[in-house]
Design brief:
The complex is a heterodimer of chains A (430) and B (316). Chain A has 430 residues and is mostly helical. Chain A folds into 2 domains: 271 residues, ABC transporter involved in vitamin B12 uptake, BtuC (Orthogonal Bundle); 149 residues, Winged helix-like DNA-binding domain superfamily/Winged helix DNA-binding domain (Arc Repressor Mutant, subunit A, Orthogonal Bundle). In chain A, 73% of the residues lie in helices and 2% in strands. Chain A has a 3-stranded antiparallel beta sheet with strand order 1-3-2. In chain A, a hairpin with a 2-residue loop joins strand 2 and strand 3. In chain A, helix 1 packs across helix 10, helix 6 packs antiparallel against helix 9 and helix 14 packs across helix 15. Chain A is elongated. The termini of chain A are far apart. With 316 residues, chain B is an all-alpha fold. In chain B, helix 1 packs antiparallel against helix 12, helix 3 packs antiparallel against helix 4 and helix 3 crosses helix 11. Chain B is globular, with a radius of gyration of 21 Å. The relative contact order of chain B is 0.17. Classes of the chains: A mainly alpha (430), B mainly alpha (316). At the A-B interface, helix 2, helix 3, helix 4, helix 10 and helix 12 of A face helix 2, helix 4, helix 6, helix 11 and helix 14 of B.
Chain lengths: 430, 316
């Protein structure tokens, strides 16, 4: 049985992750992801000043609401500072973000060192805002954070259409009469809210990751906004809860680091395994394309080797072609030619014997199609004014593979005899 | 304050702040001009796992292993950012944010797992920098400045910083012209056959090295202030490349010196009981410097030239 306190903290962190994933998606699509970095770091002096003021008026310096309010004010100031610096036009947004996050954070560091010299416990526990410590969170703190997260989530849902319009085509939205500046302001406000609610659990340095990583994960997996929001919210929620749980088990590991690493695992998985954009999917597609190009080249070379041996254009297909001639025509090593021949043999496109290959009927059909596509492109290029036969040959090698049969038929109307190759067949001269 | 106090307690941190400021200020201009300030931010965070691993493997602080580890981590981070940006088709900001936070989180966990934190590599050092802990126990009198034996007792971090500063200075001098071209017109530089990719990697390596060297002085995070603030302030004040780059180094050095002085020694001399975190003061000053330059800097925002009243706008 999980203790009540832990359960509340876990739920709070999960809700925080959901809100961060949702707001982060819009921030990512709008190209504002790293503003959260500036907001997070800028919160430090706000927290320090708020603690100082609370201590001066004699309140409980560990009460969360005034600290979070201070963080929100400082975060807003940070965002405004970024915008003011960008308005000079000489400092780009990236430099402005770097300046604001580092100098605000520096101010916070100086203030903290000053607070430490003061009597009283104003600074007590402030440093836990830097790296986050969900294990030390009380249930009421978690409820406050969860409340802020819930408010930002509700705001996103209320302003969904507006945010969507700005995220995809801000210029178009402006032309259609939408006040995009207001939507941007709303988005910045949401970023500040989420950052502030994440301060205690994740910490101000790493809170940006909670906005960026789930959203980037979702971006890899899908193109559709509703699905992207759902995935980002789920990934964020799981990362938040798991991170808080890990930190409850091992209190010495900062919660922020645990949350970020869980989110980073999701991102890495998506980077590798995403169905279309993932590295493995791309690698598979690249290999498949390369193999099919090699197959067509092999079949054509086998066909042309027979033509060169005297079968004449259009009639080749029932002789044995030496593997060496195929390899020589393509400029391949013997090993590569042998491996391809083995693979095509498996696919039933050719038979192999004593270093020779023989096209099967299916192989001959495929080879004829490949030869036809190649020569169609070659003749087309030559007719279109290409003067150099060798380069027409090479260009045809590159473009012939994507050529659908209808296209080849337009270049070279069917039925017709296979035209002769415009260049001598056999060993490559490149 | 006596001379021996100054030599023992103030000279090493002052030197460290100045050297870190010079190195970072020099490199910062290239980052700002190339619009890669956030790469500086990313590298300063991303070197943490390299530093921790270098330390964990050898048990030495501020040695060559830490430098090598940090440079490897920096290189890995830059490569990963490029991959993420290309594969996930994210904008560079998001790719940077995804990669450096992960590296920093890994560094934090390593800090706990390897037990490095318990020994010597303090988390406070990462977060705030620990200029104040640099002391020169042998600096009892002015004569010690010429005594090789006493000089060898200077904190070894200073040696690392001096080495990095020298290496960065020499490298920048050697590739001065290609660097300039790459800052202003990468396409033209490429047409001239300048190996842009290699220079970019070299720049990233130098920033990583500077981040490690300054890590001791201002901590992992405030390195960003030293990298970007002097360069950005000058960017607001000058359009001349030489002023920008060399001035950045000078301004960085001044920032380090003045910041350190304001944090402790000056209030002490004035009799005020105030000791602030030196790195924090340096970073705050950096921000104020940029704000001052933005408000009072000589150069106004560039606007398109106004056409004289009544003349028709040019076609196209």
């Amino acid at each position: 049985m999980i203790p009540y306190n832990t359960a509340v903290v876990l739920l709070g962190c999960a809700l925080l992750g959901v809100a961060a994933g949702t707001v982060g998606t819009f921030a990512l699509l709008r190209g504002r992801a790293l503003v959260a970095d500036a907001v997070g770091h800028a919160a430090l002096p706000g927290v320090a000043v708020a603690a100082l003021i609370v201590a001066l008026v004699g309140g409980d310096p560990r009460a969360l609401p005034p600290l979070l309010a201070g963080a929100a004010v400082a975060g807003l100031l940070g965002v405004l500072a970024v915008q003011a610096l960008t308005r000079t036009t000489r400092i780009r947004e990236d430099a402005a973000i770097a300046i604001v996050l580092s100098s605000f954070y520096a101010l916070g560091a100086a203030l903290l060192s000053w607070l430490q010299t003061l009597p009283g416990a104003a600074q007590a526990g402030l440093s836990k805002f830097i790296l986050g410590q969900a294990a030390a969170m009380r249930a009421e703190d978690a409820m406050i954070a969860a409340g802020v997260a819930a408010v930002s989530l509700a705001l996103v849902l209320a302003a969904f259409q507006r945010l969507r319009a700005v995220a995809f085509d801000a210029d178009f939205a402006r032309v259609m009469g939408l006040r995009t500046d207001r939507s941007d302001l709303l988005l910045l406000g949401l970023i500040v809210l989420v950052c502030v609610s994440g301060l205690q659990a994740v910490g101000l340095i790493l809170v940006v990751a909670l906005l960026v990583l789930p959203a980037a994960t979702a971006r890899l997996v899908t193109h559709r906004l509703p699905r992207m929001l759902a995935i980002a919210a789920t990934a964020g929620g799981i990362a938040g809860a798991t991170g808080a749980w890990l930190s409850a088990l091992r209190p010495e590991v900062p919660t922020g680091a645990a949350v970020v690493l869980v989110a980073a695992c999701f991102f890495t998985l998506a980077l590798l395994l995403a169905p279309e954009r993932g590295l493995l999917a791309r690698l598979a597609m690249l290999t498949r394309r390369r193999l099919s190009a090699d197959t067509e080249h092999f079949l054509r070379a086998a066909w042309e080797a027979q033509e060169a041996a005297g079968a004449g254009p259009g009639t080749a297909g029932d002789r044995w072609a030496p593997l060496g001639a195929v390899a020589g025509a393509r400029g391949w090593s013997r090993g590569k030619a042998w491996r391809l021949a083995w693979w095509l043999g498996l696919r039933g496109l050719l038979a192999r014997a004593e270093g020779h290959v023989h096209l099967t009927p299916r192989g001959a059909t495929a080879a004829r199609r490949a030869v036809r596509a190649h020569r169609a492109v070659e003749h087309h290029l030559l007719a279109a004014g290409a003067t150099d036969i060798a380069s027409a040959d090479r260009l045809a090698d590159l473009v012939e593979h994507g050529l659908p049969p209808e296209m080849a038929a337009r270049l070279l109307p069917e039925p017709s005899a296979l035209p002769a190759s415009p260049h001598a067949l056999g060993r490559r001269t490149r | 304050m006596t001379l021996s106090d100054f030599l023992m307690l103030d000279l090493p941190p002052l030197l460290a702040a100045i050297m870190a400021g010079t190195t970072c200020g020099l490199l910062g201009s290239f980052l700002v001009l190339r619009r890669e300030s956030l790469i500086g931010d990313a590298l300063s965070h991303a070197v943490l796992p390299g530093i921790v691993l270098g330390f964990a493997v050898t048990g030495l602080r501020a040695g060559l292993p830490m430098l090598v580890g940090a440079m490897l981590a920096g290189l890995a981070a830059v490569a990963l950012i490029a991959v993420v940006q290309k594969v996930a088709r994210l904008d560079s900001g998001a790719a940077i944010g995804a990669v450096f936070t992960t590296f920093f989180a890994i560094g934090l966990v390593l800090l706990e797992v390897t037990g490095a934190r318990a020994v010597d590599l303090d988390l406070d050092c990462v977060l705030f920098g620990q200029l104040e802990t640099l002391v020169w126990t042998e600096g009892r009198s002015a004569a010690a400045l010429l005594d090789p034996q006493a000089l060898s007792a200077l904190p070894r971090q200073l040696g690392l910083m001096a080495g990095v500063a020298l290496a960065v200075g020499v490298t920048v001098a050697l590739i001065w012209r290609p660097l300039k071209l790459i800052c202003f017109d990468p396409a033209y530089a490429q047409a001239l056959g300048i190996p842009g990719r290699r220079i970019e990697i070299g720049l990233a390596l130098m920033v990583a090295a500077a981040a490690v060297a300054a890590f001791e002085a201002v901590g992992s995070i405030l390195v960003v202030a030293m990298l970007v603030c002097p360069a950005a302030a000058l960017r607001l004040m000058t359009d001349r490349y030489n002023t920008q780059v060399l001035g950045g180094a000078a301004l960085g050095a001044a920032l380090g010196a003045v910041g350190y002085a304001l944090a402790g020694p000056v209030p002490a001399v004035l009799g005020i009981d105030l000791a602030l975190n030196a790195a924090g003061v340096i970073g705050t000053l950096g921000g104020l410097m940029v704000a001052g330059a933005a408000l009072f800097g000589g150069l106004r925002p560039r606007r398109p030239a106004r056409l004289p009243a009544g003349s028709a706008p040019a076609a196209g």
